[in-house]
Specification:
With 206 residues, this protein is an alpha+beta fold. It contains 4 helices and 13 strands. A hairpin with a 2-residue loop joins strand 4 and strand 5. The termini are far apart. The C terminus is likely disordered.
């Protein structure tokens, strides 16, 4: 996947009134936060932004071009209108090439486990993993193949191979995916019926 490039321009006027005027022209007000804490007010084309961010996550690095200067950044927050879903404001956080960063990367489960085909159920309780690496090494997502998992087998964070230069920050004992034995509904119902029948039998006195 090629890196997303967003074209922005500096925004001289801030405030809620100015933001409304910007939105009426088909643009979105935003802020690019630098690594040293400085904030740059910007605005972007609304249609370009919405189209570009459809397939990105919080761990995806995008390029924001501001009047000829390119910045690598995360899309950290988007505010939306609760009625129509339109984007009202967007925050970017700059990342610096060659400087270690921490980010949460989404986990994507792939495959149909052997254990599921044998009657088990797949559970995937962990949806993201925090890592530390250079921006160039940051994975956009972590794909976990569960095809070989049998019943009562699991994959933990410590089992993942994320590539050279990527250090896992999340707890290594956390379960990423597991296949559990699924008790048949008919068996459970039968057991319940036996229990119910036994309890309903009249007591016989000697």
């Amino acid at each position: 996947m090629s890196q997303v490039v967003l074209t922005a321009r500096n925004r001289a006027v801030t405030g809620s009134g100015a933001a409304r005027r910007i939105r009426r022209t088909g643009r979105i007000p935003g802020v690019l936060y630098g690594r040293s804490g400085q904030a740059r007010a910007i605005d972007l084309d609304a249609q370009e932004f919405v189209k570009s961010i459809k397939n990105i996550s919080e761990s995806t690095i995008v390029t924001v071009e501001i009047e000829g200067t390119a910045y690598n950044a995360f899309v950290k927050d988007t505010q939306r209108n609760i009625q129509d879903g339109n984007v009202l404001h967007v925050d970017f956080y700059e990342v610096e090439s060659g400087v270690m960063l921490r980010a949460k990367v989404s986990v994507h489960i792939q495959g149909n486990p052997v254990g599921v085909r044998e009657g088990g159920t797949l559970e995937s309780p962990l949806h993201e993993i925090e890592v530390e690496c250079l921006p160039k090494d940051l994975p956009q997502r972590i794909e976990v193949d569960v095809s070989e998992l049998k019943i009562n087998q699991s994959i933990h964070v410590r089992d993942l191979a994320l590539g050279e230069g990527v250090r896992i920050i999340s707890g290594v004992d956390q379960v990423v995916a597991l296949v559990k034995f699924a008790k048949a509904e008919g068996t459970a119902a039968s057991e319940e019926g036996v229990s119910s029948t036994a309890s309903s039998e009249p007591e016989t006195k000697a």
